[in-house]
Amino acid sequence: MQKALRALLTALGLLVVAIPIHAQTDDEEELLVIELSGFEVFSKSIKIVDGMTGKDYQGNHPIVLGFRREFDDILLKFHKRLVVGEYHMIKARKESIQPHIEELAALAASFGWEGFEVDGPHLTRETAIFQRMVNDPFFKIEKIIVWDARELARNGNALPNNKYAHNIRLNEETGKWERRVMTEWNVAYLRQNPNNGKVNTFHTYKEQGLNLDTNRGFHLIDRGLPADVPPNAFKEVGLDYPIVIDYAISVEEEIEKLKRDFVENLFYLYDPFSWVARGNTRFRSGFRRQLEEHIGKQRIKLSDRSWFDPLFAQFLDDIVTIKIWGADEIYEHRILSSIPKNKNQLGEDLDLLNWRKRENRSVSYDPSTKVNIPHVGFGGPGSARFIMIDAYRRYGDSFLSALRQRILNLEERADPRELILAAIEEVSGVPSDKYLPAATKAQRAELARFLPKD
Fold first, then answer.
1. Average pLDDT of the chain?
2. For residue range 14-47, what is the model confidence (pLDDT) as tens digits?
3. Separation CA 450–CA 454 (nearest Å)
C-alpha cells in the first residue's frame, strides 16, 4: 500500500472520527464553501441488490446491513476529506507559482535576457474540477451489489446471466472471488473556437476500472481537457460497488474489512484530478517551455541554439525547483515521467481488466518493460541536463557566475558545449574528461534511488 494511502487511513481512523473542517484560520476562509453545499447526493437512496437474482436484496445478513449503515457516512467524510486535501494542494501550488516565475525572470535577466513573463490564469483545469466537487459531488455510488460466497459455491461457482455478473470473477490461481468497478467519466460543453469564433461541442471521456481486491486498474483518456473547461462540463459518474460476503471470519471483522477495503478503493477510484495527471506527477513541472521560448528570442553569440536553448531553459528552471522543492523533486519526476504505464495506471499497478471475451483494451507499449535509468552524459539536452545539475549542486552560484561571465562577455560566436565545459573546469579545478564520468556516475545513482521497486 502506498505511503499516502496509509497516511489517509491513519488520519481518518477508517473515517469513524469526524473531520475537523469547522475551525478555519484566516487563510482558510475559502473552506467555508464546503459547508455551504448539501451532500444529499450521498443519501440513503443507495440500493442494495442481490447479485444472483439481479433484484432488490431481501435478506437481513448482519454483514450486509452493518456495512450499509456506515456506507453513506464513509463516502460523505471521504469526499469532504478529498475536497479539503485538494484545497490545500491547489493553494500551496498557486502560492509557489509567482515566486517561481519571479525567480526565473531574475535568473534570465542576470544573463541579459530581460522581460520574462508567464501569462495566467494558472491551474484552470484543477480549479474547475475542484469547484465541481464542492458545488455538486459528481461521483455517485448507486448500488451495492451483494454476492454470497456460500451461495456461489452451492451453484458450482457459476455466475448468473445478468449485468452484475460482469464485474465479478473467480481467480483460478488463488481460488478467490475478485470484484471490479468500471466507470466512464464524461466531459461535454459548448466551446468557442478562439481562432474563428465558432461555437462547437467539446466532448471527451475517460474509461476507468479498478480491481477492488488487488487495487490494480487502468484509466484511458480519449483526449485531454482544454484550459477553459468549466465546472459544469463534468457529468455525474455513477457506479455499482460489489461486495462478497465471506464466512471465514466473524461478522465484526468482516464489516471492518469491508470498510477498510472500501476506503482503499475510494482512494484510487475517486480521483477526478487524474484528468490532468496522476497524483504522483501533477503539479511537478515548472516553466521550462515558456523560458525556452523567451531565450529563443534573444540574440546570443552561440552556435547550435537548438541544443543550448532547451538545455539552459531547463537548467534555470531546475535551479528554481531545487530552491523551492529540493533536488529530489527533479529526480523522482524524471523517473516517473519515463514509465509509460504511469499515465494509464490506476491504483498500485496497471491492469486492463479484460475479463470478458469481447473486452480488448490495450495500450501502445509493453507494460512489463523494465524501467531503466535515463541516459546521463554531455550529449543531447535531456542527458546534459543532469551534468548541469551536478555542477550546480556541487558549486552553486560559483558555477552560475562562471556561466554568466562567459555568456555576457561573448565577442564572437562560440560553441555552447565548450563554453559550459570551460565553466565546469574553472569552478571544479578538474579537467572535463575527468569530471564528466564522475558526474555521470553520481547523477545515475541519484536517479536510481527512484526506480520502481520490484
1. 86
2. 433 333 333 334 344 444 334 434 444 444 578 9
3. 12
Q: What are phi and psi of 431, to 5 degrees?
A: -60, 145
Domain ranges of the chain: 3-165+238-275, 288-337+372-448
Residues contacting 27, CB < 8 A, separation 6+: none
Determine if the pTM surpasses 0.90: no
Average pLDDT, integer, range 56-65? 91
Length of the chain: 454
Given this model, what pLDDT does residue 20 score?
34
